Fold this sequence. Notes:
The structure is a single chain. By secondary structure, the protein is mainly α. The chain has three helices and two strands, in the order ααβαβ. Strands 1-2 form a two-stranded parallel ribbon. Helix 2 crosses helix 3. The longest helix is centred in the middle third of the chain and has 14 residues. The radius of gyration is 12 Å and the shape is globular. The two termini are 13 Å apart. The relative contact order is 0.17. The mean pLDDT is 89.
Amino acid sequence: MDAVDAYPEFANRHGMAPLIITTNESGGDETGCAAASSLLHEHPEVNAIYATVNAFAVDVVPALTDRGLRVPADVMVTTP
């Protein structure tokens, strides 16, 4: 089972609403940052981000630090 399938099951078992944002890998470095910015704008309570593409894990860091959030103290970022 891959993470995209496993996460909604995990969230439901723990009484959480799954938060999933998808984006196109071909969008370049800004794509991961923009997706993370959108997620954080809509859900400022997020305390972890799982990026299914390694480059996106790096790309989300500016979205976090722009908001004064620290990695990993405030928000954990992980990738496969």
